[in-house]
Amino acid sequence: MPHSLNSRHAVYAGSFDPVSLGHQDIISRGSRMFEKLTVGVGINPDKRPLFTPQERVDLLKKSLTSFANVEVMSFEGLAVDFVRRCKAGVMLRGLRTLSDIEAEFSMTLANRALAPEIETVFLMASERYTHISSTLIKQVAMFGTNADQVREPLEAFVPREVIAAVRAKFVK
Ligand code: ADP
After folding, report:
1. Which residues pair with 85 in a beta bridge?
2. According to DSSP H, which parts of the chain are helical?
3. Which of 21, 86, 126, 168 has the lowest CB atom count within 10 Å?
4. What is the pTM of this model?
5. Residue ranges of domains in the chain, CATH in brackets
6. What is the pLDDT of residues 99-133, one digit of tens each?
């Protein structure tokens, strides 16, 4: 690969607001495919996230302790520039739905124009996590729990280590 990028090192960039079981599944599978995987928390000044970038990094780190070849950091600016700074050769993405494919297709073409030396690799979401999005997590959290519920509903959407932090954001 030209430009001394490492094709065995991938970057998985996103908002991770917060990390979900779907993200964790992509990270787990990606960590088996690549020698090193960097999870990049993007700082987008146009978005109003629930969690600060530092909180998102901390929650990712807490839920990824079992993956020795995975590192987590935040970045500002374009994802392709972050990938270059990491000297990684691959951008990893997850695909859930047809509408994801459409959006990811345009983004990948734009990224290729900006950085033709970086390849994008897509992993199809596992069927049990396809429906999970940050929006859904926030909606579920907004409704709280009631005393009759035996199980915490968020368990089906986010790693165990993330539940208390999401709940804390919605305490009235
Ligand atoms: P963005 O703000 O860039 O959409 P996200 O953190 O929502 O960032 O997602 C980052 C990547 O993870 C994207 O490629 C997205 O398609 C993928 N992704 C999001 N949710 C899931 C899921 N439930 N299963 C698999 N991949 C997912």
Report:
1. none
2. 21-33, 53-63, 79-86, 98-114, 134-142, 163-169
3. 168
4. 0.94
5. 6-168 (3.40.50.620)
6. 899 999 999 999 999 999 999 999 999 999 999 99
